[in-house]
Amino acid sequence: MQTELLQEARRQAEICNACRYCEGYCSVFPALHAERAFADGDLTQLANLCHNCRGCYYACQYTAPHEFDLNLPAALAEVRRDSWESFAWPQPLARRFHSHGGAIALALVIGFAALFMAIRAIGSEGGEGFYAVLSHNAMVAIFAPTFLLPLVSVAVSLKRFWQEVGGQAMALADIKTAFKRAGKMQDLAAGHGEGCNFEDEDRFSQGRRHVHQAVMYGFLLCFASTSVATVMHYGLGLHAPYGFWSLPKLFGVSGGILLTIGCVGMVMLKLKSDRSLGDSAAWGGDIGFILLLGFVGFSGLVLYVLGGSVFMPALLAIHLGAVLTLFVLTPFTKMAHGFYRLAALIRDAQRKRLS
């Protein structure tokens, strides 16, 4: 990890530890105040606990033009991004995406869509509905490895993170606590329950919390749709296409709507926010990822609406290209932050239990 980023985060953390004005703001400050000195692993843990709500910055009396020049949200955001890049496997891909994320995502979507159109052109028909364009076996052959390999990459990354932050054997109680906190997004309520100041210094808002929840639950519903369809296909012998009132369709449509709305809302909030309070070097990559994730949900909805039209083959190729791009890039984009954040919440619950 980059030494200069850790040194600056350590300087600011030590000042915050002496001040303690923001003690109840979020999970970061109780964890920060539990330490007297900060090893690199401590700073990595604090950075991944931080949700960048920015309430501490606007409440701080030591921000610029004070000589301390504190900007803890930005310092932790830079350490957080650097930790994802440093622990990622293979590492060079992560650093490249954060600087050229939008262009990489767009190129891959176009490339994969062209690949799917080429597969159709040389003959892959083998079923009804979408399978008349790309057979079920062809989809499995393409998507199974591109789903499993990123999971292996994420597992390697999380193992490195866990070792860095001094994590111990996980207890079920710690995991349950972490999932509960993640599900409620309670750290985006900034301690007092009124929300955070992400969009505006003078206004508390639950907006960022709500769009995060829309994205998270939308993605989980889409994943549930695919999982249920897999069980129905292999376990029950019920093959696609499925009707609207089937579980795969209900989960998929509702998940696509939530995912699209959440990603649009997230982009709007980021455009309103002050870039200097986050990691400005990763701003383009963050926007590129959010747009990609939103496009996956939106293209799936369009495909559902126009699935019986002449546009279906092209729409299917574009949608599958976006989904495949999302899978391939998962370990190297902000998608990975969900895994790191959950691991950091488990480690924090562990710290509290053992202290």
Can you describe this structure?
There is one protein chain. The chain has helices spanning about 5-20, 30-35, 40-50, 55-60, 70-85, 90-120, 135-165, 170-185, 205-235, 245-270, 285-305, 310-330, 335-355. By secondary structure, the protein is mostly helical. It has two domains: about 5-85, no CATH class; about 95-355, no CATH class. Helix 7 runs parallel beside helix 13 (about 335-355), helix 8 (about 170-185) crosses helix 13 (about 335-355) and helix 11 (about 285-305) packs antiparallel against helix 12. It is elongated and about 65 Å long.
Notable traits:
single chain, about 350 residues, mainly alpha, about 70% helix
Summed up:
This protein has helices at residues 3-19, 28-33, 40-49, 55-59, 72-87, 91-122, 136-164, 172-184, 207-234, 247-272, 283-305, 312-329, 336-354.
